[in-house]
Amino acid sequence: MALPEAYTGSDREEQYRYGLKWARPLVEETTRHASDIFTFETHENALINASPFGLHTAMFIPTIRFQGSVEQQKHWLPLAESGKITGTYAQTELGHGGFVRGLETISKTATFDSKTDQFIIHSPTVTSTKYWPGGLGLSVSHTVVIARLIVDTKDYGSHSFIVPLRSLKSWKPLPGIELGDLGLKPGLNGTDNGYATFNSVRIPRSNMLMGLAQVTRHGSYSRKGKAQAAYSTMVLGRVNIIRVVAFQLAQATTIATRYSTVRTQGYGQYNEAHTELPLMSYRSQNARLLGLNAQAFALLFASKACMTIYRETKDATSYLHALVAGLKAYATRTAADGAEDARKCCGGQGYSNLSGLPEIVSLVTPQCTWEGDNMVMYQQTARFLMDSLRDVEGRKLHPSLSYIVDPAYSSTLPGVKRAAKAPTLHLPETHLALFRQRAARIIRSTSTAFAQTSATEGVPTAWNKHMLRLIESAKAHTEVFVLEAYISHVAAVENTAVRLIMQKNCALYALISILNSPDFFEHGFLSHDEAEVMRNLVDDLLDKLLPDAIALTDSWAFSDRNLKSAIGMWDGNVYETLMSWTRQLPINRNLPNEDGGAAGAAWREVIGPMLKKARSVGAESASEEKIRSML
């Protein structure tokens, strides 16, 4: 296999051109064949944001579909879906991110001019510069701009506007618009994350997306539908992030598992055979990698369950918004930490770009912050939880939260029955009971503390004071949903042999999660003896799953071209591939010619003059004379 083009250079423009090269067929596949396979992810299972045209399919088109009027959809969607225009989604500003209500477009940024029937899009400050949208720097002709709507000096909050950016004839920015690329990043350099400033740019009134809100010719404002519907695009984006990071974690785990099966190192402690052992045979290695693969499946099944709810809901309800926010935070943090751990499992080879692991880490890590910083996401989930518990007596509690007030899961109630007994600690229903009990206890205690502080010091003070507990509550509830999804999807597997393996995977995920979280053991609900039972269960599960480690990773069906990993090739030829790719690196191609390439330039410009200067200072020793004779 030839060296992947992604590894041939680090020049910013070269990487962008490489991104354009593979992004074009994805767009053509989407437009010519009405396919949605590349709407949210690339051919390499990265989020479509890695493409210069990623937000065109993932955000620009869905926003028009969700927020545009029927007339606007008829006008704009054919243009966008046929590829006659390209678009992005400009929400994030230099000084503002996921907090939509705080976007600094509050003064004259989307001001209605009734005399001309136009909106004036304006960036009043440096921090109101649109900053980070993919494709904005070089690749798109239009954008949806999220701006604050001002009509007759009245601020109606954030709304969406379609703004042309470039001439379709010359591709130059239109008057009043400044555009540019943000430069090199740790990853995602195939796309042109960019910035845009607007200096009193005028657009027709009809360019305001008016499916949810309207401004008439005479400046009358009206809103239709629920306010949450405006966040449908963002919620859909987060739902797809959850799915994509599951595959990215699986990619990293697949590479590390294959490498660890081939790589031999050390004899092991007290091993007299003096035969080097595969890395995968060490418990410290197989526990990490089998555990990571179990996590990847957990994220995949959670994403499937979440997508089902999204499709059935068809609207960004408070529950859906809270669920997706928590899952986005949990999934991205789990995948980012897991991908990095998989890289570390490969030792020095995992640090090489040729392993494919640094790129995966660089692709999954930023997802902890984009589309909403994870700490902010958890707080959105926590807000829903606190609001819901406050409404318990009014019977407004969502069905998914019923376990929180179930006496079976509250250790604070007298006579509560223990959910766990040593003989049942291997059962999924016991694992789920433990997850629910832990979450119910954390959420209830947090709600009580928050309510008490709110009553004496006010809600803002109470929220900041208990923020860590609120985040902990959101995470605990999210993990309940993840395990519920895991158990239900495994139970639905028809093939008996596969189902048995996946049940072991699910149990491994649950038990490792419990043992790694001290709050499961608070208040004595789980004993030290039961912890010892769970440790033994984990060891037993690892022994049973180890023979299927390669099969489990192969089940994700990644191709060699998808992984782009010299150490994770399906054929196991790690060292041959690694040396072949290394020799193909551009920096090594001119090595036979001592006057050319990087080595020749280094000698002429730096190394030769440096050594010559050093030799000219002071008398030469015998060893130095010998060295000089070699030069």
UniProtKB/TrEMBL annotation:
Q: Provide the alphabetized UniProt keywords.
A: FAD, Fatty acid metabolism, Flavoprotein, Lipid metabolism, Oxidoreductase, Peroxisome
Instruction: Name the cofactor(s).
Output: FAD
Domain Acyl-CoA oxidase C-terminal, first and last residues per copy: 428-611
Q: Which residues bind FAD?
A: 92, 134
Give GO MF terms, alphabetically.
Answer: acyl-CoA oxidase activity; FAD binding; fatty acid binding
Localization recorded for this chain is:
Peroxisome
Location of the active site: 371
Main location per the UniProt record: other
Indicate the segments forming the Acyl-CoA oxidase C-alpha1 domain, all copies. 231-386
According to its UniProt entry, one GO biological process term is:
fatty acid beta-oxidation using acyl-CoA oxidase
What is one cellular component GO term in this UniProt entry?
peroxisome
Q: Which residues form a coiled coil?
A: none
Q: Where is the Acyl-coenzyme A oxidase N-terminal domain?
A: 6-85
The protein's matches in Pfam families, at most eight in alphabetical order, are given as:
ACOX, ACOX_C_alpha1, Acyl-CoA_ox_N
What InterPro entries does this protein map onto?
ACOX_C_alpha1 (IPR055060), Acyl-CoA_ox_N (IPR029320), Acyl-CoA_Oxase/DH_mid-dom_sf (IPR046373), Acyl-CoA_oxidase (IPR012258), Acyl-CoA_oxidase_C (IPR002655), AcylCo_DH-like_C (IPR036250), AcylCoA_DH/ox_N_sf (IPR037069), AcylCoA_DH/oxidase_NM_dom_sf (IPR009100)
Can you tell me which family this protein belongs to? Belongs to the acyl-CoA oxidase family.
Q: What is this protein called?
A: Acyl-coenzyme A oxidase
What organism is listed for this UniProt entry? Answer: Ramalina farinacea
